[in-house]
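re: ur msg from earlier - yeah i can do the nicotinamide-adenine-dinucleotide complex, just paste it... oh wait u already did. ok heres what im feeding in:
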Amino acid sequence: MFKVLVSDPLSEFGIQKLLEAEDVQVDRKTGLSEAELIDIIGEYDALLVRSQTKVTAAVIEAGKKLKAIGRAGVGVDNIDLTAATNAGIVVINAPDGNTISTAEHTFAMIMALARRIPPAYKKLVEGEWDRKSFTGVELNKKVLGIIGLGRIGAEVAKRAKAFNMSVIAYDPFLTQERADKLGVKFGTLDDVITQADFITVHTPLTKDTKYLINTKQFEKMKDGVRIINCARGGIISEKALYEAIVSGKVAGAAIDVFEQEPPVDNPLLKLPQVIVTPHLGASTVEAQENVAIDVSEEILHILHDEPFKNA
Ligand code: NAD
Ligand code: MLT
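and the outut:
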């Protein structure tokens, strides 16, 4: 029997997929500390996580039988990839299943930011009928700057076109052909930064994208620009964003992901111009089913020495 440890909450559809294989036993143990995980990981052939479990080098070192680590989602930044590669463990993700949900969440954030829905809601439920403080802006004819035109960025671009926004995108791997197909203007990072009314980031967090948006970039932006991050905390410097909002350069920001999650004493959360959600981009019934099924299928392929993808 192969033993699979599921250490973060995972849709039941994924568990069922794993259990369809008669030679697989699934243990669900969530909320483990690193030490607790290290204590038990040696019994398992595969580990399946979402984003809460930090699969550190020490966990990997203790996972003597591990053949595969599956991530039910896109970002694998909670897994020490170097340690896994050195140990000969395959790391796979589920890159497609939550694309639409995250693009839709991004658009919900853009609209909530433009029309100031969260602060208006708060005031009304607190008893105040205030129709003066929440004048918003239209999306119509505004420029949306997209940094990272991959799966999610492209879906955001399509939705923006439906709102009659013009879209300019920067992605070092973007081709003119793909930009044309999406009806998107192909720009440099500087073009996007200087021309956009709304800027949304959709890159992975890597050493190249860490603080890609920093004080220097904020200085070049249009006055009153609005910023959205539903990708990864740290692509935009939170300190620089805070200063740009307080100075009046940035009119508002919508943030789903943080440099530290959950955020602790984060001053951005105190600013009325900022709206936030607790990393909910992929939190839909559909996305969680999709990623759980996709990653479970791949884990089974690896355990059974069958061809697999998304490594
Ligand atoms: P993807 O790999 O399809 O797209 C990422 C794009 O970023 C690629 O086209 C790549 O070329 C581009 N890129 C890489 N480096 C860049 C750079 N320096 N400058 C500009 N572009 C660069 O990934 P995706 O599925 O679209 O996911 C995008 C991000 O969203 C990832 O960080 C992922 O972890 C995150 N995500 C968040 C949630 C959430 O819950 N908020 C859900 C899903 C994905
Ligand atoms: C992802 O990278 O897929 C996201 O952060 C979504 C998640 O795991 O909740």
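cool cool. The pocket of D-malate (ligand 2) is lined by residues 50-51, 73-75, 98, 279, 281-282 (CB under 6 Å). ping me if u need the other ligands too
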